[in-house]
Specification:
about 170 residues, mainly alpha, two-stranded antiparallel sheet, globular
């Protein structure tokens, strides 16, 4: 139903999900066969600490994304070493689980990074479309979705504090 409900006029459908959300489909024989032959796009971030800080900020403030197509400043989330560390562990565990699942079901996903997507939206979206066997305009952007990047003026400060605290924890044996 999810796939059918999101299908475009040219037959393309998509699901954005975490691994736990896809497991029930993989457990169903019919869905498994369909998913095994689907085009998988695996979107990750190269900057895992940046992603962890972003997730931390989202959970802390409830502010996850901006709509209206303009860059928006996120509310201040303060600093919590342990909570940011938990997000790093969550993300790296999730990535390892995706890799094990891809290997176990024989899927070779198209690997796209968030950084690649934001640096070259049109080219990256064209790469995805090519993998799916569909044609799109080369100048397509994400702006049509209505979402835009959420920024925070203290991201570098949070990163610097986390790295300093992490180094101190390593030196102290923690």
């Amino acid at each position: 139903m999810v796939i059918a409900g999101s299908r475009t006029p040219n037959g393309v459908a998509q699901i954005k999900c975490d691994l736990a959300q896809i497991y029930p489909f993989l457990a169903d024989a019919e869905s498994f066969e369909r998913l095994k032959t689907a085009t998988w796009v695996y979107l990750t971030r190269q900057d895992i600490l940046g992603q962890a800080i972003s997730r931390y900020r989202g959970f802390k403030t409830g502010f996850w994304h901006s709509t209206g197509g303009k860059k928006t400043e996120s509310p201040d989330a303060g600093y919590d070493f342990e909570e940011i560390r938990r997000q790093v562990v969550f993300i790296t565990d999730m990535m390892a689980s995706f890799e094990r699942t891809f290997a176990s079901i024989g899927v070779q996903p198209l690997r796209i990074s968030y950084e690649e997507l934001t640096a070259n939206e049109g080219g990256t979206l064209k790469k995805i479309a090519d993998a799916m066997g569909i044609e799109i305009d080369n100048d397509l952007t994400l702006e049509a979705s209505g979402y835009s990047k959420v920024a925070s003026s203290n991201t570098d400060e949070l990163r610097d504090r986390f790295l300093a605290d992490f180094k101190s924890a390593l030196v102290a044996g923690g």
